[in-house]
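DM from R.C. (forwarded with permission)

"hey, sorry to bug you on a friday — could you get me a structure for this? deadline for the figure draft is monday and I only need the backbone to look sensible"
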Amino acid sequence: MKTPIIWGLLLLVAAVAFDNVNGSVAEQCEPERCRLPECRCSGTDIPGGIRPRSVPQFVTLTFDDAITSINMVTYRRLLYNRRNSNNCPIGTTFYMSHEYTDYQAVNELYNRGFEIALHSITHKDDQEYWKNADYETLVKEFVDQRTQVAHFANIPSTAVKGIRMPFLQMAGDPQFIMMANHSMLYDASMATINLVNPGLWPYTLHYRSIQECNVPPCPTSSIHGPWVLPILAWRDLENFPCPFVDACSRGPNFQDEEGWYDFFQKNFENHYLGNRAPFGFYVHEAFIRTHPAVERALARFLNLLNSLHDVFMVNSEEVIAWVKNPVPLTEYRQQGCRAFPVAPCRAGNPCRIRSDHNGNTYYMPVCTACPRRYPWIGNPLGLW
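My reply, with the result:
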């Protein structure tokens, strides 16, 4: 599997009904024709023309890959019972892959108000596979995964709205056409190095994007529906760009808690003291778990965020909702906390299933009955 450092380096390398595509290369955006809530030109301008100091500063903390009993220990310790300054529970988005996932844990996270999003069924360690993935392959990896998650974790499929491509490898137009045709709200895979200060806000693909394409192929057609939630790269101690915290290879010493706390705060201030584009804290749980000083620094940093009256840790989907209907800070603070139905889970002994794709035996806790076969691409529910 590729290391986080490689993910950072990747940023430097430069019979389907296409119902939502106009059939031609996207044209330059025309703001008078591209209006919220359905359309937004790519840019660093603040939605709604709100003054920076009156903009809620959103923070999106995200974790990638399988949700397991091991990393749940960290999630419970670090995230549970946290609230923003408006007394609403914090949000966090989990871009989950299927293999090794504990679906009872997915259900638990959902019932805590956190967002479950898609990171593919297979998470294949093959850059070319994702780069060249066609429409049918992407449907099997992501649309079928949404069905899989909804079934085994017993959560509403309509609550699963976003995707992140493995290794941040884009798949071009087919990726967003798949999303448009299957009512997926946003992609959170496209990283930008150039448009970070001031930062790029989320936008749609009705018109041509001004965002650079660091891991091609990127979308070029006019595609209506999906939003781009761009990854705004951090800068490490030597000013080297990194899309994930654990890809910042020139960061502080791993035993230096104070250094990491300052590092988090400095990157946050680039947003908070600028145009307040959403601040993404993208990381893998193993990095936090294996570096206790980093976890302590992160806990302190989250405490700081939760104490600020104009900063809100939210799910990725909530950022898109605000951009569609931007309101100033005072009005945002008066809104009620998000509500969601509780999803029951019939917990029991984990399923023990041998996989046909690699011969391994998996222990797979689910909220429903055990599948006949280990679920995999082409057989997402393990029915045959």
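R.C.: lifesaver. The CA atoms of residues 39 and 110 lie 29 Å apart.
me: no worries. The longest helix spans residues 135-153.
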